[in-house]
Amino acid sequence: MAVSTDPMRFLLIGPSFFWHAVANLFLAELVANVHGFMVTTFNHTGEDIYCFSSGCRVNSPTFYLRAVIGSVNCHTGGFLNDFLHGYLNYQIEHHLWPDLSMLSYAKAQPKVKAICEKHGVPYVQENIFARMVKVLRIFTGRARMRRFPEEMERKEDFMAYNDRGVAIRDGTTKPSEQDLAPAM
Fold first, then answer.
1. Are 8 and 18 in contact (CB under 8 A)?
2. Which residues touch 175 (CB under 8 Å, ≥6 apart)?
3. Partners of 161 in beta bridges
4. Distance CA 130, CA 74 (A)
5. Mean pLDDT score, 130-147
6. Where is the Fatty acid desaturase domain (predicted)?
């Protein structure tokens, strides 16, 4: 059963009820948007996170490396903490395995972190307020995202796109220089 959010029906009761309904809808939208911004923006933004100049083939070694070094986790663990983050505090695990359940992310997180530490792969995890400071530094131009050095990429994992954004190479063959050139 869908719940109507139309405040007009409260006019039948009286104008005071109508304006209270409007105020509640406005405040609910405001709180939901601020919360949504806070728990999603930090996931891929900050001077300590890599951005990439080209696409890569799904399920390739490059894809999995990018899932870790292009994402951020906030503090994890505990039902209330995970719930308040909307389980987006497991962003790295989500990008590694997008089809897992939220509870599976919580089980995988310490194992993924340990594997990254073992192999020297940066695994960024901070509290949401420290992440928001980094997001604001990017938004205000006081900091820049890190560019992953293209010479460290596996060329066979690259995706190339035509000027319409359609993949023209899927990484199974080495893309030509023309394929990788930016569209003008």
1. yes
2. 155, 158, 160, 168, 169
3. 167
4. 9
5. 93
6. 15-125
